[in-house]
Amino acid sequence: MGIKKVMVCDDDRGILDLIELIMEDAGFSVISEINSLNAISRIEKEKPDLLILDIWMPVLSGDQVLKSIKDSSSIVNLPVIMYSASTEGEVIAKAAGADDYIAKPFDLDELIGKVNKWMV
Amino acid sequence: MDTKNIKYTPLSEQRFIDPAILASVLDATNTGVVITDNLLPDNPIIYCNAAFEEMCGYDHDEIIGHNCRFLQDKDRSQESRFKIAQAIKDGENCVVEIRNYTKDGRLFHNELYLSPVKDAAGNVTHFIGIQNDVSLRKKAEQTLQMNFKEIERQVIDRTRMLKESEEYLSSIVETIRESLLVMDKDYTVLSANNHFLNTFKVSINDTKGKLLYDLGNGQWNIPELRLMMEEILPTNNPVLDYEVEHEFPHIGRKLMLLNAHRVELEGQFKDRILLAIEDITERKAVEQRKDDFLSIASHELKTPLTTVVGYVQMMQRLMPENSSEKFRSVVEKTGTYVARLNQLLKELMDVSRIQSGNIELHMDYFDFDKMVRETIDGLQTAAPGHRIVVKGKPVHQCYGDESNLVQVINNLISNAIKYSPDSKEVEIHISRVSSFIKFSVRDYGLGIKEDDLKKVFERFYRVGDIQKNYPGMGIGLYICDQIIKNHKGTLWVESELGEGSVFSFTLPVNPDKKAAYGD
């Protein structure tokens, strides 16, 4: 098997860069997307093995992106880990059908642990 | 008196009464009698009776031959004297009140009746003076007069004071930035201040004499308010801080704070109701903006902080094997302070959530003893200087939001450690009290002043002299209190300055599940 591919979608450049750094350090290849409107087409094109998805994003929020993924016939079995800084985040993530949730600010090992857990 | 029994003596017989008898008669009366001879120069006194001697204090011998004026001593310019002079000149009767002086100089008021005695030719030969000392009466009259004047003065004074106090009151009522209505026992409006009229854009005619519940569009006709208002007079229970949100005619949707009390002014009125109405729409909006600000600011800070926390962790991870101790220490310290910043921000966000009532409790059954044990384990590692001792009996199952309760216990024990730097032990006590779980943390540290005891649970409250040496925002205990309240329990503190503190909370073992989600 080759190197696993993780995609990160967040509207904040700092977080995006950080997760990219963490994932690369953990041995994954990383695609990052700052515009949630492009998320679906990027997923379809890049076919990542796992998606790390922010909840609070302008225009199209994380739970809306996840809904499109669920509705999409071309994207199947993509594990999604959502995160947010707000406490309601976990409830929203579960309701939207995310596989896992992590609260901001996250602990490095916790994040890597969750990614490894869900990586098919 | 029975007039039929009086026997009148015919005048003809009187003329023959012995002068000695007449003299005795005159001496027997207590009315002073003087006779002057007006045919002699300077009208000397030729007769006076005993009562006159008694009245003026002079002896018979000192009186006879003198003109009456000695009685006025030096008080010569009295108007009465001119009346007397005129009467004598004209040979007529006169009655005057004159100030006379006794031999030893004492003033007495003499009511004097003067009558001329004329001969057959009609010439005045004598004058008879009948005198009564009316000093007492005069004095009583004067006292009465003075009393009357005093009373008059008091009435004027009181009226002025009343007017002033009414003006004073009315100026307060009119100046106050709160709408005021006074009603009688039937809720008919007796008066309304200008602030009321201006606030609700109504005229006094729209208001005075109307029933409270008929005012406006029946805007105060709220069943709950009505019930409370109707309890005021019979029970004397005031309506306190009752909020009414309503679409008011003329002014739109407003949030009003109502307070109503029974008012009574002894002797003037009783059983009246004062209703104070405060428009708190603006204040609420400002509070809301402040809460919104807190919420937005803390959320906005969270994202860059998440990034910093992550990068610090990456720095530790990517640290080269051969890095200097100094560099490692710098990275580690950065981590510690970023963690503290993160904790503070988390607390701020908690406050913000509590303010907005956005606290969601995830209620479930969990093992309380285990939760306490695990929480203590974490704290014990972080504070090796203190021994955390657990006493009491296991309580097993508990129904509540575990992560919230962990936060409370963490906070209480951390405080106990933080504020007892010179002691070695923190004591935990767990027990079951009736249908409650009771949890207490005792420390042997600084203790809390009595004045501060209640306030430690207030938002952003910090005990003054603690501030310098112990950092914090004063929200930890506020959050704990809110969490325990949300669980329908109570949190309290007992403390002695210099002896230490005991923070305790109770949790109902089987709370009404619905109620626990409330608030």
If you had to describe this structure to a student in words, what would you say it looks like?
The complex is a heterodimer of chains A (120) and B (519). Chain A has a single domain, classed as Response regulator (Rossmann fold, 3-Layer(aba) Sandwich). In chain A, 42% of the residues lie in helices and 20% in strands. Chain A has helices spanning 13-25, 39-46, 62-71, 89-96, 108-118, and strands at 5-9, 29-33, 50-54, 80-84, 100-103. The mean pLDDT of chain A is 91. By secondary structure, chain B is of the alpha+beta class. Chain B has four domains: 3-133, 2-Layer Sandwich (Beta-Lactamase), CATH 3.30.450.20; 176-279, PAS domain (Beta-Lactamase, 2-Layer Sandwich); 284-355, Helix Hairpins; 364-517, Heat Shock Protein 90, CATH 3.30.565. Helix content of chain B is 43%, strand content 25%. Chain B has helices at 11-14, 19-28, 50-56, 60-63, 79-90, 135-175, 194-200, 204-207, 223-235, 281-317, 325-355, 368-382, 402-418, 450-453, 476-486, 513-517; strands at 32-37, 45-48, 94-101, 107-118, 124-133, 179-183, 189-192, 239-248, 252-265, 269-279, 364-367, 387-392, 397-400, 425-433, 436-443, 490-496, 500-508. Chain B has a five-stranded antiparallel sheet, with helices on both faces. In chain B, strands 7-6-10-9-8 form a five-stranded antiparallel sheet. A five-stranded mixed sheet of chain B has the order 12-14-15-17-16. In chain B, strand 9 (252-265) and strand 10 (269-279) form a beta hairpin. In chain B, helix 10 (281-317) runs antiparallel to helix 11 (325-355), helix 12 packs parallel to helix 13 and helix 13 (402-418) packs antiparallel against helix 15 (476-486). Chain B starts with 10 loop residues before the first helix and ends with a helix. Classes of the chains: A alpha/beta (120), B alpha+beta (519). Chains A and B meet through helix 1 of A and helix 10 and helix 11 of B.
